[in-house]
Amino acid sequence: MTRKTDGTASEGTQQRFFNMKNHCTGVILAGGQNSRFFGTNKALVRVGGKKILDHIHDVFRDLFHEIILVTNDPPQYLQWDVNIVTDIFPIRSSLTGIHTGLFYTSTPYAFFAACDIPFLKKELVETLVGAIEPRIDIVIPETSKGFEPLCAVYSKRCFKPLEAQLAENELKIQQVFQKVRVKRISEDILRKSDPDLRSFCNINTPDDLAKANNIATGPTEVTP
Question: How many other CB atoms sit within 10 Å of the CB of residue 50?
Fold first, then answer.
């Protein structure tokens, strides 16, 4: 069941964000090696001279008291001030990471971010966390390109449906949308906090990295 929101974030919405700060954890999904990226760990790649993980961690540190990093290679991340956990299910997928993050979070909600988004904006995270409502299980961005499930808020109530889905080896994240209550945040609202939607730019290939470095160092405005 999904519901779409339109319009601007109200003062009440912003107040909910600050009320929810202690009730939401930041979770980073660190996927390890990537075959399309010459076996390189994307979280440790530098964009504009800064590691992608450093950028995400800086955003999370300003917003969340608890930060969890999900990885199957913990030694690579010991220098960061995060709670490092490993996947519960031995299945390599983003769904596994979300399931694991929800298992370990101590708060009712968690904001999840993939480890390969170098331009995640604090204001966009605030918008999504500020849209949390007691009866909503997922707050997810929706743009003209579709949903952004790896830059979204999930309630701990999603844990059991995700576990059942993984037990059936159903790895598509959007399948769980049919089992929980979903609030979609429209592109119009998202652009108020991230006009170019750069928060959703991810690095999958060397070409993506080159484009990201051009964005980070050049004056040209580019929409992902």
Answer: 13
Domain of 75 in residue numbering reads as 2-211
Backbone dihedral angles phi then psi of residue 10, each to the nearest 5 degrees:
-85, 170
The predicted structure's pLDDT at residue 16: 52
Question: Burial of 44 by CB count in 10 Å (0-12 exposed, 13-18 middle, 19+ buried)?
Answer: middle
216: enclosing H helix or E strand: helix 206-217
Predicted structure pTM score: 0.88
The residues near 36 (Cβ < 8 Å, ≥ 6 apart) are 204, 205
Low-confidence ranges of the chain (pLDDT < 70): 1-21, 32-39, 219-224
Q: Where would I find the beta strands (DSSP E) of 2-137?
A: 2-5, 24-29, 33-34, 40-41, 46-47, 50-51, 67-70, 83-85, 109-114
Are the CB atoms for 173 and 85 separated by under 8 Å?
no
Check which CATH number belongs to the domain holding 27 and give it.
3.90.550.10
Average pLDDT, the chain: 88
Compute the distance between CA of residue 98 and CA of residue 105 in angstroms, rounded to an integer: 11
